Automatic annotation (TrEMBL):
Residues 269-282 have a biased composition (Basic and acidic residues). Keywords: Amino-acid biosynthesis, Aromatic amino acid biosynthesis, NAD, Oxidoreductase, Tyrosine biosynthesis. It comes from Streptomyces paludis. Residues 254-284 are annotated as: Disordered. Residues 294-361 form the ACT domain. NCBIfam families: PRK06545.2-1, PRK06545.2-3, PRK06545.2-4. This is Prephenate dehydrogenase. It comes from the Bacteria.
Length: 361
């Protein structure tokens, strides 16, 4: 691949363009808002000038409801040798494209499983896709050359290709992406009218659950409008769990011992099923999640403090597997939870104490 056209310079489009441009591909940028294309170009994602002729690959990075029409227009114009989109829904756009009479042999639907709660070109990053799954949904009509171009794109973005059926993909993302967005937003919505004293008690748990609730509502209306059925199916199951959980909690208030025991059993059941489901979420390198030990370090809110912790861990020969930061309410300080292999935890704790860090047991 020597040339590419990226249509849509939001988070995903700009990140694709930055990755390709960084690996020597000449990237042309286009957006319905020319200012966004110019911003992406200024970031080093390519040029906002139109290509002189057909490019090797056209990457359509627009909302799902506009994917088919955009692809069809580019195909009619002969803009590229191959065409793909990066929308988060795959079945609907492909059927719409077929209904428009487009040549599906030149097209493949794809979806990089990466993102942020921020959007727009300024949120773009060349390493956004590093090590992340990138779904490809070829059909029997897909030309081999187009599939190879898509695989080359995934490789240049340092992602991991995953081949799926388009409708199976849509059911999967309803479970692992679209429904979590709605649940996060629903929990965060409870905070909107909460008492200020209650909100000041927010800890890491509520921050974890509501992080993605900061996402752009307009963007998510577009996504959910393209995949409403599968999302509704998942939410229906969650609604059943919620109804049973509410009933169990009410039973815990009963004066009847048997009802209270039944309520406790119902709560334990949903928590245990949650444990089992969480254990299936892939951890580091896609393997089953490891049980790490946490070394909690008090830090002041000063430049370079995190870097010093990581450097001291490196000097101790300890690999940091993950890290979490919990900010202290109303203080210029916080707690850094450094996650390491259990055998390395005492080594790290001793090394950090020796270097003057305050360790919380």
């Amino acid at each position: 691949m020597r040339t590419a056209l990226v249509i849509g310079t939001g988070l995903i489009g700009t990140s694709v363009a930055l990755a390709l441009a960084g690996r020597g591909v000449t990237v042309h940028l286009r957006d319905h808002d020319p200012t966004r294309a110019r911003t992406a170009a200024a970031l080093g994602a390519g040029t906002d000038e139109e290509p002189a002729g057909p490019v090797d690959l056209a990457v359509v990075a627009v909302p799902p409801t506009h994917v088919a029409a955009t692809l069809a227009a580019e195909m009619r114009a002969g803009a590229a040798r191959g065409y793909l989109d990066v929308a988060s829904v795959k079945g609907g756009p492909r059927r719409e494209l077929a209904a428009l009479g487009a040549d599906l042999s030149a097209y493949i639907g794809t979806h990089p499983m990466a993102g942020k709660e921020r959007s727009g070109p300024l949120a773009g990053s060349a390493d956004l896709f590093d090590g992340r799954p990138w779904v490809l949904t070829p059909t029997r009509d897909t030309d081999t050359e187009v599939l190879n171009l898509a695989l080359e794109l995934v490789a240049l973005c340092r992602a991991v290709p995953v081949v799926m059926d388009a409708d199976a993909h849509d059911r999967a993302v309803a479970l692992v992406s679209h429904t979590p967005q709605l649940i996060s937003s629903m929990v965060a919505a409870r905070l909107e009218t909460a008492d200020e004293t209650d909100v000041r008690l927010c800890g890491q748990g509520i921050r974890d659950v509501t992080r993605i609730a900061a996402s752009d509502p307009a963007m998510w209306v577009e996504i959910l409008s393209a995949n409403p059925g599968p999302v509704a199916d998942v939410l229906s199951g969650i609604a059943a769990d919620l109804a049973e959980t509410v009933e169990s909690l009410r039973a815990l208030q009963s004066a009847d011992d048997e009802k209270r025991q039944g309520g406790a059993a119902g709560i334990e059941d949903v928590l245990r099923r949650g444990n089992a489901g969480r254990e299936r979420v892939p951890g580091k390198h896609g393997a089953a999640p490891a049980a790490y030990e946490i070394v909690a370090v008090h830090v002041s809110d000063q430049p370079g403090e995190l870097a010093r912790i990581f450097a001291d861990a490196g000097r101790a020969g300890v690999n940091v597997e993950d890290v979490r930061i919990e900010h202290a309410t109303g203080q210029q300080a916080g707690l850094v939870q450094v996650m390491v292999d259990p055998a390395a935890a005492p080594v790290l704790a001793a090394a950090l104490r020796e270097r003057g860090w305050s360790i919380r047991q």
